[in-house]
Amino acid sequence: MRESSSAWVRNRNTVRYTPKSLGSVSQTVILGVLVLVVGLIYVTQGTKATGFDYELSKVESEIAELEAKKEDLAVERARLTSIASNNQSTVAANMEVAEVSGYAE
Predict the structure, then answer these.
(1) What pTM, to 2 d.p., does this model score?
(2) Domain assignment of residue 49, yes or no
(3) Distance between CA 39 and CA 47 in Å, rounded?
(4) Alpha-carbon distance 44 to 51, whole Å?
(5) If exposure means fewest CB atoms within 10 Å of the residue's CB, which of 46, 62, 88, 98 is most exposed?
(6) DSSP secondary-structure letter at 3?
(7) What are phi and psi of 67, to 5 degrees?
(8) For the stretch 86-99, what's the b/e string if a residue is b when 16 or more beta carbons lie within 10 angstroms of its beta carbon?
(9) Number of domains in the chain
């Protein structure tokens, strides 16, 4: 006696397995999380670049400041060299010391 197709048959599974897949809500949530992660990575890289820009500006301002000091020191050196060479010249040694004789009233 054969039974209908829904009957239990020897060496057959009685449970039908269906493949599991993600639903549309799950797919949307996963996509949202991925977009959020990529956005966070983008923002962190942008802030790193801004931090490097601030450091570069700081170093450039220090360079400009040191160049200005170098120019001031070059002027001071020229002045001191000029004074030293004038003190050693024979023309300056033969000059008389200037004195204030009085004021005209």
Answers:
(1) 0.44
(2) yes
(3) 12
(4) 11
(5) 98
(6) P
(7) -65, -40
(8) eeeeeeeeeeeeee
(9) 1
